[in-house]
Amino acid sequence: MPLPLLCVMMAAPAVQAPAPATEAQRVLDAARAKAKEVAAARAAFTKAGGNTKDFKGDCAKELAALEARLAADPQPELKQALLVSTLYHLQLAKIEPSPALLARVQKDVPPTAAAWSLEPGLLGTRLEADPKGWGAYVAEARTKHADPDLRRSLTFDYFWERLDAKDEAEWKPAFDVLQKEFPTSREAKLAGEILEGERKTGIGRPAPAFSLAALGDSATTYSVASFKGKYVLVDFWATWCPSCRAEIPALHAAWAKFKTKPFEILSLSFDRRVEHIAPYRKQAATPMPWKHAFVEGGFQSPVASAYGVKGIPKAVLIGPDGTIVANGAQLRGENLEKTLETFLGK
Length: 346
Fold this sequence. Notes:
Elements: H1 3-11, H2 23-47, H3 60-71, H4 76-92, H5 99-108, H6 121-129, H7 131-144, H8 148-164, H9 168-181, H10 186-200, E1 211-214, E2 217-223, E3 231-237, H11 242-258, E4 263-269, H12 277-281, E5 291-294, H13 302-306, E6 314-318, E7 324-327, H14 333-344
């Protein structure tokens, strides 16, 4: 055999078969496959005119199988995959996990467990539902997890949440991490757009102009000038948005307390279909008896661009002279009433 060929053959690396998937990996792969199935079903549901808020993934069979496997008390890595997969299937089915399950997850699944790479949004959901209970846990995952995709996603969520709270000491370092460690990522680009959007609606700035037909009354048009002499809370929302729906009780409380004062609420819907709004408002708990408009095009609309709307809910409070006087977390939950009291009194 000629020497050159021998040298080439000796230098060539051995071809190795890929390592077989572990049982934990198979559990996570099955969850990903189920998510694709649910996404296809949801797409068909919305194409037929359904509202995504009414869609729930059918995961009963998978959840029963996961519960049975967990009952067998598997080895740690598999147990972690099973627990995270259970959380994921519950989220697909829009079922709130029990306190017992959540406690078990925190006990048996470390923040740096590989299983969390299944879906970074799982940790974000838990943090939003229980900031105190999950704050330290998610912070550890955000800073120490081996998966850069998960760290990037959690850092982006943290940046946005802290920006909304006007906590510059926290949002600026998170923004810098996105730009330096993940400069070409979608999250880094979107963070920059969100920051620019916040500047468009900064306190003390003139409210961007808009002209929108009143919902159900095309002869009436709402603009910033329509509310001259009053405070108007402009609320960007949609019925399909869970976080938006979570804000509705606070909006109702604010309306009940301040509707006799120089105060209005204008809810601007980003629903995919205008027909989805009325059924939601017909429910006894959510009449939303204030002013409304439907924004054709939602996030791609001129008003979304003018107000820098990259996510909903988003609210701004415009003063009697057309100047923005409050925004962000100041207008969320229990903070809404407190903020309005500073302008409208008790």
